[in-house]
Design a protein that fits this description.
heterodimer; A: alpha/beta; five-stranded parallel beta sheet; two-stranded antiparallel sheet; B: mainly alpha
Chain lengths: 345, 478
């Protein structure tokens, strides 16, 4: 180091002063790594009751990777957050005793993510004995990775991208709009305050151990025990709809979609998988386009595809929904009862 | 590698300490390597083009210095043709082809000249002008040719100002490369402070405003009257914060290592005339045109009509420097027009206003002229920002259409516009404090821990309020 005595004194002064200025930022950066608000740095056996909205894709993938040797998963529910209504714990009832179920979903999951998960399971050498795949308009519309924002970005093992591309958005979000302040407030005082709305989780979100189901504990409790009050308070999230007339979605049978679906089908065939493709009920009176349905029938076999879209007994009753995007577990349970007794619908 | 990226921060945190750890004789090598790395982060192959012009100018300078008369002029011309030639090919060729096609279309003839599909090298306009200022200064005998090829290369490629200026003069920079730079607390702290301030202007103010102005200027057919006015006023602040923010980061990064770059912005919104404004805005470019175009054309020594002509030429060229679009030339011409009109009208307006019985007359007049100067510049930026002449006509048409005064801008509720306004107010408040000298008289008298709190507020504001959508610096496209 080519510095004379005078420069060394200057350097010491700079180091001391810069350390003082950067003390708070460094502590805040350290808090991101130590406290791990998004649960992406350390390993967890339980992701329940997090005050922060977690990246469901990361949670479900990492939990699977960390526990596959323990629980020997061989039966998987795949799809987007609509799979909230299909609990793996309920699904177990319809399968044989050797089936070890896992809820392997993600928020905003598209074909890209579903196919990546199927390939991952196959690559890990795990069995795909039973698979229940939920495919709706939004998951079929996005055959490529969208992964925009920290809630939707894919686990690095699925995206096969450098790890820093996954972690950086979380790091940025922690510091933006004083998110860290809200989080530290909640962490220290344990109280959810109004100014945290939009940043922190006010709901009680439970991830079941073993099966990995996501349960909105308090929401489901309110809907079940006090439906009148629950649905009156949530009237604004149920937009008006016309149940006299059914619309049709666009067609999603492009090459990109077909390639993902065929890739999945080939793995299922190789493994002799019992696959059920479910097009779930939707609040809007929209039915999946017949051409898209035909594509799914051709690829997976008509007897394995079950279409509950459009106007149905499930979609007519708002008590079957938490809000216009997600239906409740009683719907999933009822559908599973049907599909495990009947061929394709 | 954008200055508002983690990549650049990591780059800076490596380059600067290593610079100080190295002996003086090795520092130029390290800085040159770092500058090459930064340049090659965009398109690596283009370093060959930059290297080619460096070699041409290096030898041209010796040729100029050793010759006289026509030979000397030929040597200078060689350097200028080499530099302007590269600029013409990459920046103006397609523009010329478009215009030739247009002319032949008007004449009713078909002609098919191929287009040149290559991405503009980053910072081409800046380092080209900086290289030309070297050979021009040698030509005028104000600068000796630099024998050290490495140091000359570093003069052209010095990383803080490589991609968007300030456009330096050899007399300012080259001698500094010979000085042994000792680590200095004041340089390091003031440099870092300036970098943080520049980052604040860029990510908190400029990029926030971009979310609104892009709606107006990218979809001119959808907006009229108030939206165009709001868009142009906001864009004025955006452009200032974007470009001066970049300059602050560049000047600050150089200062941390002990190098002094020229001031590029000097509170231009405090100017009370368009002429004064252009002495405070993008100072390095405007002084370049003044010294190497305006003065050689006669400057202020010729008759007034000829001065006006010179001003038009300089501003038209300045507009053209910004890019290959007639809107940019028109922007330059409009500003020349303002200056010329001001030559006649300003004395009369001042005389008229001075005769009025206004309390605090001088202050009122100062504020009045500042606002008028700002509005004149803001109007010219409608032209500058328009993506094409067609878009410009749509915007001007919209500006004059008052049949529907609904503002069709998405403000993200009210948070978008108000957060942009608050960001501008915060920035202007700090600038006013600086302008009045309160910054120096108050801030540096506070205890160290008060200053630490202020620095932390600045840093936290950047990370918490910054818009990190990765909008490149506006002037990178030039």
């Amino acid at each position: 180091m080519y510095m004379n005595q005078e420069e060394k004194i200057e350097l010491k002064k700079i180091t001391r002063r810069l350390s003082a200025v950067l003390l708070l930022p460094v502590l805040l950066i350290a808090s991101f790594f130590v406290l791990d608000p998004f649960h992406i740095i350390w390993k967890y056996d339980n992701y329940s009751y997090s005050p922060v909205v977690l990246n469901r894709d990361y949670v479900s993938t990492q939990y699977y990777l960390d526990h596959r040797d323990i629980y020997k998963y061989n039966s998987f529910i795949l799809g987007n957050s609509k799979t909230l209504g299909f609990r793996a714990t309920d699904w177990k009832k319809f399968l044989d005793a050797e089936s070890h179920v896992y809820h392997f979903d993600a928020s905003g999951e598209g074909l890209y993510g579903i196919e990546a998960k199927v390939r991952l399971i196959d690559r890990m050498g795990d069995s795909l004995k039973h698979v229940l795949v939920l495919l709706d308009e939004s998951s079929l519309y996005y055959p490529e990775e969208t992964g925009d924002g920290h809630i939707f970005i894919k686990h690095p093992v699925l995206s096969e991208r450098p790890a820093y591309e996954f972690y950086l958005p979380f790091f940025k979000v922690y510091f933006q709009k004083f998110f860290f302040l809200k989080y530290l407030d909640m962490k220290i005082f344990g109280q959810y305050r109004p100014y945290m709305k939009g940043f922190l989780e006010s709901r009680k979100v439970v991830y079941t151990e073993n099966e990995g189901d996501l349960i909105l504990e308090d929401i489901e409790h309110m809907a079940a025990t006090n439906p009148d009050s629950f649905y009156t308070a949530r009237a604004s999230v149920f937009f008006p709809r016309n149940l006299e007339k059914e619309d049709t979605t666009g067609t999603f049978n492009g090459t990109a979609q077909k390639m993902k679906l065929i890739s999945m089908r080939n793995i299922f065939r190789k493994q002799g998988t019992d696959v059920k493709i479910v097009i779930p009920p939707v609040y809007e009176p929209r039915r999946l386009h017949p051409d898209t349905r035909r594509m799914l029938d051709t690829i997976f076999g008509k007897e394995n595809v079950y279409d509950y879209s459009g106007i149905s007994e499930y979609s007519k009753d708002i008590h079957n929904f938490y809000e216009s995007a997600h239906f409740r577990p009683n719907v999933g349970d009822s559908i599973m009862k049907e599909i495990y007794t009947l061929p394709g619908k | 590698m954008l200055f508002n990226s983690l990549h650049f921060i990591a780059f800076f945190l490596v380059v600067t300490p290593v610079f100080y750890l190295l002996a003086h004789k090795f520092r130029w090598i390290w800085l040159l390597m770092a500058s090459c790395y930064l340049y090659m982060a965009f398109i690596p192959e283009y370093i060959l083009i930059l290297g080619g012009t460096i070699v041409v100018d290096y030898f041209a300078a010796f040729w100029i210095a050793r010759t006289e008369g026509r030979q000397r002029k030929l040597a200078l011309a060689t350097s200028i043709v080499a530099n302007v030639g590269i600029l013409a090919v990459f920046k103006y060729y397609n523009f010329m082809v478009d215009n030739i096609h247009g002319i032949f279309d008007i004449m009713g003839t078909q002609v098919d000249i191929p287009y040149f599909n290559m991405i503009l090298p980053i910072g081409l306009s800046f380092h080209t002008f900086q290289a030309m200022s070297y050979t021009i200064e040698v030509y005028y005998g104000r600068q000796k040719p630099e024998k050290h090829f490495g140091l000359y290369s570093l003069y052209v490629m010095f990383y803080p100002q490589l991609v968007a200026g300030p456009i330096e003069r050899p007399q300012n920079i080259l001698p500094q490369f010979y000085e042994v730079k000792k680590i200095n607390y004041k340089n390091v702290v003031s440099g870092l402070r300036l970098m943080a301030w520049g980052m604040f202007k860029k990510v908190v103010v400029a990029d926030r405003i971009e979310l609104i102005t892009s709606q107006v200027f990218n979809h001119p057919e959808d907006h009229n009257n108030w939206a165009v006015i709001i868009g142009s006023i906001l864009f004025t602040f955006q452009l200032y914060c974007d470009f001066s923010g970049y300059s602050d980061i560049a000047i600050g990064a150089a200062r941390v290592m002990g190098y002094k770059l020229m001031l590029n912005f000097n509170l231009p919104f405090y100017a009370t005339s368009v002429k004064e404004f252009w002495n405070k805005w993008h100072i390095s470019l405007n002084t370049w045109f003044r010294d190497y175009v305006y003065f050689p054309m006669g400057g202020g020594r010729v008759a007034v009509p000829r001065q006006f002509f010179n001003i038009f030429v300089v501003f038209a060229l300045s507009g053209l420097w910004h890019g290959s679009n007639w809107t940019l030339v028109l922007m330059g011409v409009i500003n020349a027009f303002y200056i010329i009109v001001g030559y006649f009208t300003r004395p009369r307006i001042e005389k008229f206003l001075n005769a009025l019985p206004i309390p605090y007359k001088q202050d009122v007049l100062t504020v009045y002229f500042r606002i008028m100067t700002f509005l004149c510049f803001a109007f010219s930026l409608i032209i500058f920002r328009s993506n094409s002449m067609h878009d410009l006509f749509l915007l001007l048409e919209g500006l004059t259409d008052w049949s529907d005064t609904t503002i069709h801008l998405k403000f993200d509720g009210y948070s978008g516009i108000w957060s942009a306004v608050l960001a501008i107010l915060a920035m202007e408040t700090m600038q006013y404090i600086y302008y009045r000298g309160w910054y120096h008289s108050w801030f540096f008298r506070q205890s160290f821990w008060v200053r630490v709190i202020c620095y932390n507020i600045l840093l936290l504001s950047i990370v918490s309020f910054g818009v990190f959508e990765v909008f490149p610096f506006y002037y990178f496209q030039f």
